[in-house]
Amino acid sequence: MATMITTPTVIPDAAVVFDAAVLRHQSNIPTEFVWPDHEKPGIYAAREFPVPVIDLAAFRSGDLAAVAETCKLVDEACRKHGFFLVVNHGVDYDLISDAIRDMDRFFDLPLSTKEKAARKLGEHCGYASSFTGRFSAKLPWKETLSFRYSDEKECSHIVEEYFQKTLGQDFADIGGVYQKYSNEMSKLALEIMELLAIGLGVNQKHFSEFFQENDSVMRLNYYPPCQTPELTLGTGPHCDPTSLTILHQDNVSGLQVFVDNEWRAVNPSLNAFVVNIGDTFMALSNGIYKSCMHRAVVNNMIPRKSIAFFLCPHKDKVVAPPPELVGSTQPRLYPDFKWPTLLEFTQLHYRSDTDTLLNFSGWLQQNQTPHATQA
Ligand code: OGA
Ligand code: NI
Questions:
Q1: 255: Cβ below 6 Å to ligand 1?
Q2: pLDDT by residue (tens digit) across 93-108?
Q3: Which CATH architecture best describes the domain 31-368?
Q4: How far apart are alpha carbons 59 and 137 in whole angstroms?
Q5: 12: helix, strand or coil
Q6: What is the 3-state secondary structure (H, E, C) of 271-309?
Q7: Model-level pTM greater than 0.90?
Q8: In testing the pocket of ligand 1, which one of 217, 244, 247 has its CB within 8 Å of the most ligand atoms?
Q9: Is 304 a catalytic site residue?
C-alpha cells in the first residue's frame, strides 16, 4: 500500500550493535549508515579499472628482459595510483581457500561470542563492527577481525596464540591457517619490496631489509548484504596509512579506487592479490609512489569477504627515504617518523584520507615543539 507509513528502525542506545543477521534484511537501514549524497555510491555500477597485472613468475625467472618489463609496469602503476595485481605469486591456493572459508566460521558465530574478541577503543586489533569506533555517522556496513603479525623470530606463533587466547581451543586450527597465511603474506610483501626498489632505482634489498622483523596487521573484512547498497559503503573512502597492502577478495566485487576523478571497480580474480601502496611507503619513497584513495561497496545478495595484510615496519624503525630519492629537485616531503606515531594519529585523531601524510606532518611539528622546549 503506497500510503502506508513505515516507522524507521531506531536502534536504542543500549543496543548499539551491528548485528548482521538482523540488519541484512532491513529495508530501512539505520540513518547512521546512510552516507551523504556526494559520497554514497548510487545505483550506477562503476566502470572497471584496468589494473596492471604483474607476473611474479616472470620476476623470479631471472630473465633480464622479463624482470625489467615487470619492474617497469610496477613503477608506472605506483607513480600514478599505486595499485596493481600479482599473479603466479606461489601462495598455495588451498591455503587461500581455507582462509576465506574460515572467515565464515568466525563471522557466523553469535554476536556474544564474537564479542569475546572485541576491539577496545584506540586499539587496532580485535573484532569490530561500526559501533566500535569513535564515529556516529557515515558508519561502514561491515564487521572486521584484525590481529597482529610479527616477523620476529620469537613471535612465530603470534597469530595462532591470538586465536587460542581470545576464542578458545576450538579456534586453534583457524589460528594455524591464519598464521600460515600471514607468513606467506610477509614473504610476498618483502619480495614486492624488491620490485619497488628496482623501480625506484635504489638498492634492490633496501626496502626488504627495512621491513625485516615487520610488525604488521591482518584484517578479515566481512561485508553482509544490505537491502539498500546504493546508500551506504562497506569501507568509506580512505588511503591505507600502512606501507603495503596485499588484499585478497573472494569472488564478489566491491573494491573501488579513485583515479582521474572517478570511482573505478577493481574486479576480483581468485588467482590474484590486489596490492597497493600505503602512506608509509609513500613517505619512504619521498612521495614518488602514490597511496591512492579507495573504498568498498556492498551488495544486496551475498556476503563479501576480503582478507587484507597490511605491511608495517618494526616499531623502532625510522621512516625516511633513502638518500638517492632526495635531492635539489626532490626535497624531503615528510619528516622522519616511526610507524606507531602515525598509527596513533590515524586511530585517535584523524580519519585516513588523501591528506593524512600532510596533516600528520603538521601535527608532528606542533606536538614535538613543546616537548623540545621542555627538555
Ligand atoms: C581495507 C580496504 C577493501 C576491501 O581494509 O583497508 O581497503 O575490498 N578493504 O575490503
Ligand atoms: Ni584500504
A1: yes
A2: 999 999 999 999 999 9
A3: Sandwich (2.60)
A4: 45
A5: coil
A6: CCEEEEECHHHHHHCCCCCCCCCEEECCCCCCCEEEEEE
A7: yes
A8: 247
A9: yes
